[in-house]
Design a protein that fits this description.
The chain is mainly beta. It has five domains: about 160 residues, Immunoglobulin-like, CATH 2.60.40; about 100 residues, Sandwich (Immunoglobulin-like), CATH 2.60.40; about 230 residues, Metal-dependent hydrolases (TIM Barrel, Alpha-Beta Barrel); about 110 residues, Immunoglobulins (Immunoglobulin-like, Sandwich), CATH 2.60.40; about 120 residues, Sandwich (Immunoglobulin-like). About 5% of the residues lie in helices and about 40% in strands. The longest helix has 14 residues.
């Protein structure tokens, strides 16, 4: 039997220097010295230096001493060492510098020195992880006997990662406010990687509002130690829709809040939640306690859940999680839901989120592969079908989602438990999962959450890692801010999801004659109205769907879907409003499973024309900007999509002259400028929804509000799900839960 911890006191030790705090995403030189223990390391033995799988610290390279991330490895006795970087260690410590003693051996007291970011020959260092962490760490493991059996060695291998200087501000408010009731405005500063920071230049700023807001201070004084700034007890007397602007002394707008709709009364309140993310006890970063505090006090969401991979949740951690959700849950202020991620293999049904109404309920694991004899095997559920069977009779809700594994909802589904599908997270955008549900005849709602692994639930950005999107948010329509009201809202599918922005979206139906609103048992009550998520039995009645979107940025378009079919696109501008601006978009994924990321290496060249300006859309990694190679003529890029979209805008010197050649490693296109108009010019590129699009926009988009009516009639047997997708100018999107017209 192997002995993974054989004689650990005799296996040596490791130490890291410097161990001082470093700025997240900065360049540094880190030195780890491993000192051999009693046995040394034999010829063809190994040393592994590992760090967490989800860390986006740059990968070491060994060939270019003047370039970033150059790393050296030296044995004190001159033994020859072979090095490579791979993902060859046990989760979550997957990223690994793998060192083999290829010629020679080491004795007790001799050392191996690893310099991550060796600056001695001109390298700027190694680019560190971009998200903050109280104790970023490495693990050192040695195979002293050349048997490929590794023992973790003791040592001080941790240091703090702290936020950098502020580069942007966010103003966060409720999307819906009741007139004369107090509400909160939170002002958050973020560094270039999306970390909340108080490293901000002290200066007075002021808020501008088109309506009178009682309690709003004349100035907002920013400065070190003062962030985030929270203003409680604000009130607006009259029904209206507005947003705040934060301006500097010269009147320049530094940020705008999300839209705020003030209503006189409402039977359903609007609350924002991120229900899906992890902490360091599984595969994420930072502690579970820090996780819940971040969601409440830095991301300012109303509802949060914790979704650690079940095969990493010990009984002790499950108990601790339940203690934390009970402690943080504060009805009326902050809802904290107990739960876990059922992380079964794709062939067994794939990833599901499980939420309980109350603490103390069982965890039914998909396996115990990374747990040492924690719980009785009869509590495990190896398939999604077994999970649904085990949850019958529980006050539980399940979401299907796409993470490392994707949910195959054709393998198993329970309509009473599995209420919604998650179609956006930091893993990407997965509208196909909703369409799978339509094909199978399921009636599900739409949610979007972060699946954050960086300790930032409710406000996560992808950094420089393989995660290709900003984490999502869901707006829930609830009677009050309690767990019970959340369960009621989700069971009714009364919610919509976004790619992380807090747009306001209303989709309501009016019928020409009374129809039946169905409950879960198929019982109907007479109505002439519907909201997103409702199931309506119709005969010949016509639905007038009233759609209103208020964006956090100008709206580019709203698409209306009947089932999987795009039946209508509405824009806040017409052909006559188009000008000298064209937009090119690439989007899609390779396929459904792991490795779905599409790396677009491309360039665009104008021939017979020039551009006066270019702006990137959804370029989320600061290390990979849109590059101007030849002023006015050529740009290039590296960009990642995982079902979501990215692209650029060009403002042409001549609105209708010349051609635009777009060349990428995935697809190429040649567009005649005079043929680019209101409607998309599309080049399909295979994979899963991969495509290039080109279309024209007005030179300036100003409309943040768009409302219209869509008329639909159910003329075919079966369900007719109707939903909308909103796309903003800045690339953010939102999706309504469908209204289902059924027989």
């Amino acid at each position: 039997m192997p002995h993974a911890n054989y004689l650990p006191d005799h296996m040596g030790s490791a130490i890291l220097s410097p161990s001082k705090p470093h700025e997240a995403g900065s360049y540094a030189s880190l030195t780890i010295v491993y000192t051999c223990g009693t046995f040394g390391i034999d010829d063809s033995g190994h040393l592994k230096i590992a760090w967490r799988a989800t860390s986006d610290m740059a990968m070491p390279q060994f060939d270019r001493p003047e370039a970033a991330n150059f790393t050296t490895v030296e044995a004190s006795n001159g033994a020859v060492l072979e090095c490579r970087v791979d993902r060859v260690n046990i989760r979550p410590w997957v990223n690994t510098l793998f060192i083999r003693v290829s010629r020679g051996f080491l004795r007790k007291g001799e050392t191996i020195t690893v310099r991550f970011g060796d600056t001695r020959q001109g390298s700027p260092g190694i680019r560190l992880q971009t998200n903050c962490e109280a104790s970023f760490g490495f693990k050192a493991l040695v195979d002293a006997f050349a048997t490929y059996e590794f023992t973790e060695v003791p040592g001080a291998l941790e240091f703090p990662l702290v936020a950098g200087k502020a580069e942007r501000l966010k103003a966060i408010c409720p999307t819906q406010v009741i007139a004369d009731e107090p509400f909160r405005l939170a002002l958050v500063a973020e560094d270039r990687w999306g970390n909340p920071t108080d490293r901000i230049e002290p200066r007075p700023l002021r808020f501008e509002s088109p309506v009178r807001v009682e309690g709003l201070p004349a100035e907002a004084r920013l400065g070190p130690g003062a962030m985030p700034l929270v203003f409680e007890g604000l009130q607006v007397a009259e029904a209206c829709c507005f947003d705040f602007k934060l301006v500097d002394e010269a009147g320049a707008v530094l940020c705008r809040s999300n839209p705020i709709r003030v209503v006189k009364q409402a039977s359903l309140r609007h609350y924002w939640g991120d229900l899906h993310a992890q902490s360091e006890e599984t595969i994420g970063t930072n502690s579970a306690e820090d996780y819940f505090s971040y969601a409440r006090d830095k991301a300012f969401v109303d509802i949060v859940g914790h979704q650690g991979n079940d095969f990493q949740i010990t009984d002790q951690f499950w108990t601790h999680l339940n203690e934390l959700t009970r402690a943080f849950d504060e009805p009326g202020r902050f809802v904290c839901l107990p739960g876990y991620e059922w992380s079964g293999n794709t062939g067994m049904g794939g990833d599901r989120n499980v939420f309980y109404l109350k603490e103390g309920r069982p965890i039914h694991r998909s396996s115990q592969i990374l747990i040492d004899g924690t719980s009785a095997e009869n509590s495990d559920c190896f398939s999604a079908a077994a999970l649904f069977e085990a949850l019958k009779g529980e006050e539980a809700i399940v979401f299907a989602h796409v993470g490392g594994r994707y949910a195959d909802i054709g393998v198993a589904h329970d309509a009473k438990l599995e209420r919604s599908v998650e179609i956006h997270s930091t893993w990407g955008t997965f509208e196909w999962l909703l369409h799978d549900a339509f094909d199978l005849g399921y009636r599900v709602g739409v949610v979007c959450h972060s699946d954050d692994h960086k300790g930032r639930p409710g406000a996560t950005r992808p950094g420089a890692s393989h995660f290709g999107a900003i984490g999502g948010l869901t707006c829930y329509f609830m009677k009050e801010l309690t767990r019970e009201a959340w369960f009621e809202a989700v069971r009714a599918r009364h919610h919509y999801g976004t790619t992380g922005t807090r747009m306001a979206l209303s989709v309501t139906g009016q019928f020409s004659e009374p129809v039946e609103l169905l409950d879960d048992e198929g019982r109907g009550t007479s109505t002439t109205t519907a909201i997103m998520g409702d199931i309506i039995r119709v005969e010949s009645q016509t639905l007038s769907l009233m759609i209103e979107a208020i964006g956090s940025a100008p709206i580019e378009r709203i698409d209306v879907f009947e089932g999987k079919e795009l039946v209508r696109t509405v824009r806040p501008y017409s052909q006559e409003d188009l000008g000298q601006r064209i937009r090119v978009i690439w989007q899609g994924a390779e396929y459904r499973g792991r490795g779905r990321e599409v790396l677009w290496r491309g360039s665009a060249t104008l021939q017979g024309n020039r551009f006066s300006d270019c702006v990137a859309v959804n370029f989320l990694n600061p290390e990979k900007p849109l590059n101007v190679e030849a002023a006015g003529e050529r740009i290039s890029w590296q960009s990642v999509t995982t079902g979501n979209l990215a692209g650029f805008d060009l403002w042409l010197e001549d609105a209708f002259k010349g051609t635009l050649a777009v060349e990428t490693n995935v697809a190429t296109a040649r567009f005649s400028i005079d043929e680019i108009g209101l409607e998309d010019r599309i080049v399909e590129a295979g994979g899963l929804g991969r495509r290039l699009r080109a279309f024209r926009l007005p030179d300036h988009l100003n409309a943040r509000r768009l409302d219209f009516t869509h008329t639909a009639s159910k003329i075919r047997p079966g369900d007719l799900p109707i939903y909308v997708r909103v796309t903003q100018e800045d690339g953010h999107q939102g999706w309504s839960s469908p209204i289902y017209l059924v027989d």
